[in-house]
Amino acid sequence: MARISEKTKQTSREFSAGAEDARAELAAGLLAVQARLSPKYFYNGLGSKLFEAICALDEYYLTRVEAGIFAEFGAEMAAAAGTGTVLVDLGAGNCAKAAGLFGVLQPQQYVPVDISLGFLQETVAALQTAFPRIPMLPVGMDFANSFALPAGLRRGKRLFFYPGSSLGNFTPLQAAQFLGRIRHAAGEDGAILIGIDLVKDAGVLEAAYDDALGVTAAFNLNALRHVNALLGSDFVPRAWRHVAIFNREQSRIEMHLEARMAATVRWPGGERRFAAGERIHTENSYKYTQRGFLELLETSGFGEAVCWTDSGEKFLVCYARAI
Ligand code: AVJ
Questions:
Q1: pTM score above 0.70
Q2: Which residues surround ligand 1 with Cβ inside 6 Å?
């Protein structure tokens, strides 16, 4: 009993310290001249479900096209990467993308990494039954901030798997730094298998981030509900409008929330007045050319890249090794 209550106390202390950091970060973003909100606040319970729904939308081609590339070229990817690697899956979520490649990659160990360890452990329990011969080591880690792989990783070539164009949430400079950290963790014989969305027609991009059913709008607006819960603010989602625009100069989709009318948002210890039409910047999703992406990989210490794309050249998957 004593042990349990002490552990509970410790957990809640950690939780409240983390919550205090989150509140400070949220308030700073809301008070900035150009108000902003980190895209990580999209992913509460409902937000994660809305993201899954986005992946099933006609307009959101990324998930579907990437899956097609894995299905078509998985064997070539395995030929490039080799079998028997230690497969480190960054942002594994439900582990479905990596699991689809187990047959060709035949990893000697599977190491899924995600912020939410609880969810990951449940997924891995089910996955372990389907693949009893692959040892699995789930890791709960916010790898965007810190990158410490656990002891228990097997020796052997490390293959870092980072699909879904998740890298696109970083600025190109942050992306290079992040890839550099992966390169460091990969070691001399390590490699990366990474998926990234390609630059294309603005209409196609904007439709992918502003779908007809309004799912992406709900996903964006839901961040306000999440912020209300974390910060104690009084955002009224109905008073805001979803905006998605392709900024070609910066080569990124920007998502914003735009105030439909003048509004004052209050929270314990602060408030912000928004004029009608004023925006909160909620996400950047950078798009690359194949050339630009290869340069980024090289800058970060990955070379001899082999890349695969779909017939419409919408999406790119690259394998590159540490150099
Ligand atoms: C999860 C960051 C890859 O940028 O396409 C989807 C998130 N935002 N629709 C993306 C997202 C709006 C997604 N990533």
A1: yes
A2: 54, 62, 164-166, 168-169, 209, 216, 283, 285
